[in-house]
Predict the structure of NodB homology domain-containing protein.
Amino acid sequence: MQKDQLFTRRRMLLAGAAALGAAGTAGIVVAAGGEETGRTAAAPVAGPQARQALKPSAFRLQPLTGDAPPRAVPRRLKVRDEPVLRISGGGRRMVLTFDDGPNPEYTPHILDTLAKYRVRAMFFVCGECVVENRELLARMADEGHVVGNHTWTHPLLTELDRHEIRSEMESTSDAIEDAYGQRPQWFRAPYGAWNRAAFQLGAQMGMEPMAWTVDTTDWMEPGTDTIVDRVESGAAPGVVVLSHDAGGDRTQTVRAIREWLPYLIDSGYHLTVPARRA
Ligand SMILES: [Zn+2]
């Protein structure tokens, strides 16, 4: 009987989360300068978009040669000098992120657990893993997860020149678009090692930089209980949780999420993903 009550409670929370998601997506992002997502048609805008908004018929003046599909031209973003560390917008929202995959051994189990509780998450993937596991990217797309760019080979960006960083980021966005169906709108630097070039190039490619609030330290394989404790004690509104679905033995990560995810849901948290910009 207790089980039934728990089940009902979870269902109610999920229903609430769904309604909130519909009403509140515009406010979810972003820590500083969230104007990129919350903008309405009437809000003042700058740059080429502004001209287009003021003169909706201007496209007729463009030659109809169809050189490139519009979606291939990423929207330029403001260049930040620090990554997003947590989400704003109020409410008991949290974002779950999984880095370094996809991995055929661990990622499917994490996707299964997320599906069981109807929770969406973010996966910051590496290009070299994407090309080996395209079907996992397709599954992420089918199940509503957000895929971000985590470079091709997971290098320390601070040791690369600008050309190398661009190559790492661009090739990964290409692989994601190919396997997932859309170019990524989020970038995360390996090891959390950011530099100016990474912020500039990310903005050029239409990607916002995202870091995290709570590190599960699963990459150190500290034991399932420690990972669970890290998430549960770190839970708070706006928190972005970092886990890893590849890069080593992630058995503990897979086991831990089966414990901490229902705990977060029962604690009233809405696990959400940032709204996609138009
Ligand atoms: Zn990583």
Remarks:
- The CA atoms of residues 152 and 246 lie 14 Å apart.
- The chain is about 40% helix and 10% strand.
- The longest helix spans residues 2-28.
- Residues 74-271 form a domain with the TIM Barrel fold (CATH 3.20.20.370).
